[in-house]
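> forwarded from #structure-qc
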């Protein structure tokens, strides 16, 4: 949430910051701004709305300087107006911030009582005015920054420029991620590896409570106790070229259509098709002894967890709890001794999921994370990290991360079931072979997207749409509804098909399309009966199924390939993604940056 970049460079900072902010815009797009220090003077440009609006401002009113900080905002405190846009600046400092300063009200009251005026409503402006006060009191920049940090409560990543100091920048990390990038006679700060992709591939992930003083040639990191500390330099594999739409109209479209490739990539890291076995990273605990699994995640990652519950319970026969991360620790969960808690997150930075991870860790659970961003906080705080290898996901609506999460969770399930003695080597090899087949079937579905595009165009005018499925397809129904509502703004709900008659069927009339997800076998007959009940009430049913003889009188039937039970949920994720994508395109919404959302949710 909110993107930050800082450059202490040797050439004009603004074009480089704008390039970086373009890659960061997925983190928030309510407003954007940049500030530089040149010849000792601070100056800034800001604009509400998308980054392109800031580009227009800079075109008519350029900003000089080789040292700068930039920001894309997802609003927390204060509307997305120009006054609330970052950087927040006084005559002495310019600051960009990601996170929430929880005690900002008390600090603001204190500063106001001292006669200090504010121009906006943000919590960040408090930080700028507080540090200015310490500088006015005569503290040198480092001490003023340190004093300021000591007063802040909450979650924040900060990046600060100081007037009169063209070769100085401060950064701090407490709850929100911040990365240092090392260059040749230049140094940088950024929210993540994507921010720094065009600038540096030598990264240092700051740890909780760390702060840093940077010049072009040097950097010194300090711990929360203000002790100088060394942190590991890692090599980033995120290249600027990976964050490109290519020939696609939207990142979401690109990410949907690259799923056969990235799922194959992910499976390649976990499966040995020749030996017919699953390979997991080294474990510091005994999988066979795990008595219970807790799966925790948000949004789309939560639906991946729900699918995994069916797999783990049915194949490995291990009891599973699944929780929405924002609710998890507040229900005071009962953990099993020696239990394994798995946190699923594309970004690895979602605050709710991270807080849940820390709760489980404090309770002595073994901690595993399934993440896309391997340098993320969740990965760094886990005993076992299972990367999903999806490559950078830029579209706010998660697509390829979902199917890659499922691929990894399926591989994990096989390994667990084998460790538990629930399946023998032949069954393991059969499951491995089935999973290996998924990318080819995914490609087949995506090649037949024309029918789904037409259906999406037909239903895009609906006010409400329901998605229904049973068993393992119930979470796919919920994922379909989430995808549709977040990018097309059509109200949608996912229901267990059998639950409709307990209330939601009252919504059905000829104006409510219902999307049924019902592969042949298992509970499909029951789902189809539920769909018949909808059709009997004039509901417009679209069925995704491999059943060659679907019920008559349906509005549409999308023929799916027949596949094994393990990979079917992965395959059925695709048509619901396509439906949402094409409905949003038909409605003309901003597919990659839907209103009110941000990609990485680093506030509670
Ligand atoms: O990075 P995470 O997987 O932790 O993100 C979780 C959710 O915020 C995310 O899946 C969100 O629901 C997406 N916008 C869904 O498309």
């Amino acid at each position: 949430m909110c993107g930050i970049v800082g450059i202490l460079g040797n050439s004009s900072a603004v074009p480089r910051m704008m390039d970086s902010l373009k890659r960061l815009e997925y983190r928030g797009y309510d407003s954007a701004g940049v500030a530089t220090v040149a010849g000792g003077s601070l100056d800034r440009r800001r604009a509400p709305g998308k980054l392109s609006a800031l580009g227009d401002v800079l075109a008519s009113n350029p900003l000089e300087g080789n040292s700068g900080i930039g920001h894309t905002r997802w609003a927390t405190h204060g509307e997305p107006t120009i006054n609330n846009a970052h950087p927040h600046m006084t005559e002495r400092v310019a600051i960009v911030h990601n996170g929430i300063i929880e005690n900002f009200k008390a600090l603001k009251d204190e500063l106001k009582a001292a006669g200090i005026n504010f121009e906006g409503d943000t919590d960040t402006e408090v930080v700028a005015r507080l540090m200015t006060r310490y500088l006015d009191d005569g503290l040198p920049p480092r001490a003023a920054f340190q004093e300021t940090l000591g007063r802040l409560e909450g979650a924040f990543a900060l990046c600060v420029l100081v007037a009169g100091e063209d070769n100085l920048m401060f950064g701090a990390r407490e709850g929100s991620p911040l990365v240092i990038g090392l260059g040749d006679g230049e140094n940088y700060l950024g929210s993540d590896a994507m921010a720094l992709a065009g600038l540096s591939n030598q990264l240092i992930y700051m740890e909780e409570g760390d702060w840093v003083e940077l010049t072009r040639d040097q950097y010194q990191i300090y711990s929360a106790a203000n002790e100088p500390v060394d942190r590991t330099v890692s090599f980033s594999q995120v290249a600027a070229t990976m964050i490109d739409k290519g020939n696609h109209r939207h990142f979401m479209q690109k990410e949907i259509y690259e799923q056969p490739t990235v799922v194959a990539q992910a499976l390649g890291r976990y499966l040995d098709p020749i030996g017919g076995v699953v390979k997991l990273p080294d474990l510091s605990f005994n999988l066979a002894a795990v008595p219970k699994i807790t799966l925790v995640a948000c949004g789309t990652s939560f639906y991946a967890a729900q699918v995994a519950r069916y797999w783990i319970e049915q194949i490995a026969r291990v009891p599973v709890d699944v929780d929405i991360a924002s609710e998890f620790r507040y229900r005071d969960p009962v953990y099993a001794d020696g239990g394994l808690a798995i946190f699923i997150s594309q970004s690895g930075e979602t605050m709710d999921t991270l807080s849940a991870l820390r709760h489980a860790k404090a309770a002595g659970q073994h901690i595993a994370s399934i993440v896309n961003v391997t340098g993320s906080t969740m990965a760094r705080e886990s005993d076992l990290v299972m990367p999903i290898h999806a490559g950078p996901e830029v579209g706010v609506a998660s697509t390829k991360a979902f199917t890659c999460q499922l691929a990894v969770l399926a591989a994990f399930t096989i390994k667990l079931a084998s460790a538990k003695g629930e399946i023998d080597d032949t069954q393991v090899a059969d499951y491995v072979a089935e999973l290996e087949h998924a990318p080819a079937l995914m490609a087949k579905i995506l090649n037949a997207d024309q029918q789904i595009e037409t259906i999406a165009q037909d239903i895009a005018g609906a006010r409400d749409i329901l998605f229904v499925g049973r068993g393992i397809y119930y979470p796919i129904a919920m994922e379909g509804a989430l995808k549709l509502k977040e990018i097309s703004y059509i109200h949608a709900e996912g229901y267990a098909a059998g639950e409709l008659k307990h209330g939601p069927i009252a919504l059905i009339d000829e104006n409510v399309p219902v999307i049924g997800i019902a592969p042949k076998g298992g509970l499909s007959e029951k789902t189809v009966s539920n769909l018949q009940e909808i059709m009997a009430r004039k509901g417009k049913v679209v069925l995704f199924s491999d059943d060659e003889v679907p019920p008559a009188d349906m509005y549409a039937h999308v023929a799916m390939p027949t596949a094994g039970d393990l990979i079917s949920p992965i395959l059925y994720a695709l048509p619901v993604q396509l439906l949402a994508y094409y409905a949003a395109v038909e409605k003309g919404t901003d597919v990659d940056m839907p209103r009110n959302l941000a990609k990485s949710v680093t506030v509670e």
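QC bot note: Residues 298-301, 345-347, 350, 353, 396-398, 482, 486, 600-601 surround 5-amino-5-deoxy-1-O-phosphono-D-mannitol (CB under 6 Å). The chain has three domains: 3-247, 253-446, 450-587.
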